[in-house]
Amino acid sequence: MPRSWPALDVHFPAGREADRDEFSGSLMALLDGCGLTAVQESDEGWRLFFTAPEERDRALALLAASHPALQPAPIDVSDEDWARRSQEGLGAVRVGSICLRPPWVASDPSASSTIDLVIQPSMGFGTGHHASTRLCAALLQRLRLAGRSVVDVGTGSGVLALVAHRLGAATVVGVDDDGDALQAARENLDLNGAGELVELRQTDFRSLSGERFDVVIANLTGGLLSRGADTLCGLAGDPGVLILSGITVEEEASVRASFEPRLSLAARLEEEGWIGLCYSAIG
Ligand code: SAH
Hints:
Distance between the termini: 53 Å
Bound molecules: S-adenosyl-L-homocysteine
Strand order of the largest sheet: 10-9-8-11-12-14-13
Largest sheet: 7 strands, mixed
Number of strands: 14
Number of helices: 9
Shape: globular
């Protein structure tokens, strides 16, 4: 039987288009901890994907109680449907000197200095079409990664692990607790000839304590970053670098309060209502 994905369709209220970014931020904050794995955006609203039907139903109850105007509607999306819809609108995404493109978009031969990465859209979050991924890719390009060890916490599609590898990191580990995400990451590593060069591990990142990396990337949610601050700071060691994203404008202050007693802010970027932070700096 073909697999299907538990999802919720949420309709953006007519006439409130200007509030869209703010709204998506508060939606993500509300659904933090509900097993949200991917968000597909359209003109009408969002399709939210969840790890399990029970998580979706919990999110439905929350939304129906707090935002009935969004008319949240449950839907089970078949695998083929997901692939078809993903492929409909996606083009290449450019972040600094990096081009992230789906396999059906040809590489740009005129951009010879570009790092060209092919990312197959899948249930592994991270095609480059979400601002939080782009913020991390932009911050990574500000570091000198040659000779450094990098861990990508919540690797999803593997996109940021691949970016770190192509920017010259000596070792890269991608960690995710979701088996489907890791399967997608494995496919993307292979598509880009990096299958043997990036290590993937299926585990909750909070079980990684005791290890040290020069650079830690974590594109998660504000709530999860704050709750995992001890582990993330420990992984980055001293003087490590920590790149954080998946933070909404509304969550920024509380996330920063969890990290700033221990680390100093080196860079902050904002895009479409999302924040990317880089703590400490290496030369
Ligand atoms: N790094 C990608 C994907 C980010 S989405 C990008 O930037 O686009 C966040 C990912 O974190 C998801 O794949 C999710 O499965 C994973 N994740 C969530 N909680 C986790 C946890 N506690 N431990 C490990 N991975 C987790």
